[in-house]
Amino acid sequence: ELKVEQNPLFLSMQEGKNYTIYCNYSTTSDRLYWYRQDPGKSLESLFVLLSNGAVKQEGRLMASLDTKARLSTLHITAAVHDLSATYFCAVDKRETSGSRLTFGEGTQLTVNP
Amino acid sequence: NAGVTQTPKFQVLKTGQSMTLQCAQDMNHEYMSWYRQDPGMGLRLIHYSVGAGITDQGEVPNGYNVSRSTTEDFPLRLLSAAPSQTSVYFCASSPSATNEKLFFGSGTQLSVL
Questions:
Q1: Nearest-CA distance from B14 to chain A in Å?
Q2: Residue B99 C-alpha, separation from nearest chain A C-alpha, in angstroms
């Protein structure tokens, strides 16, 4: 059974600071996704990481994937209040009948002035 | 372009009642899926479909039925609602069965009393 663990689950940080969210998973996969969810809203795709060593950046967020370590990171640079949200990683377990995503519990990020 | 449309947005049921959550997408996506989101548990896959006429079970399928008679629609049926099915339900789609990034609907908040 594929397990996906994120840490930390709760993160409170000051504007301007840097921090990293970690996503560990238990079985082999070469596809990992990061999503953002604002309170009471739906999920929005941030990054799709498709191979070992993949790195994607968008604004103050950068995601990377190490398939050998079964680890993905989401790095936040110089945080701003608008980044406050819950961030989910999801790992793709490919079945013969199609893909199945397993999500982590989510990291609730609060950026304080 | 409406994307993924879910109805209703809110629903209250009594134990034992049945209902159908509707999901429609207008992007001609092959892959559609249903997730439930519970506090502290991330999203869990209920059922998914890789094309019209093809469905498969996800992680938590018990108590739910699906069908995929058209590419556009993927309804989720609760045959006999239970309080344990109180949750927020998200429908999601992606262009292909190899599961590129998911496009999520706005969610249905369901309460079973």
A1: 24
A2: 6
| Minimal Cβ distance to B101: which of A48, A104, A106 | A48
Indicate yes or no: CB of A42 within 8 angstroms of CB of B90.
Answer: yes
What pLDDT, in 10s, does the model give residues A13-58? 999 999 999 999 998 877 899 999 999 899 999 999 988 888 999 9
3-state secondary structure B71-83: CCECCEEECCCCH
Kindly determine whether residue A101 and residue B45, on different chains, have CB atoms separated by under 8 Å: yes
Minimal CA separation from A23 to chain B, in Å: 13
pLDDT at A96: 60
Report the 3 state secondary structure along chain A.
CCCEEEECCEEEEECCCCEEEEEEECCCCCCEEEEEECCCCCEEEEEEECCCCCEEEECCEEEEEECCCCEEEEEECCCCHHHCEEEEEEEEEEECCEEEEEECCCEEEEEEC
pLDDT, mean of residues B80-99: 91
For residue B44, the chain A residues in CB contact (below 8 A) are: 103
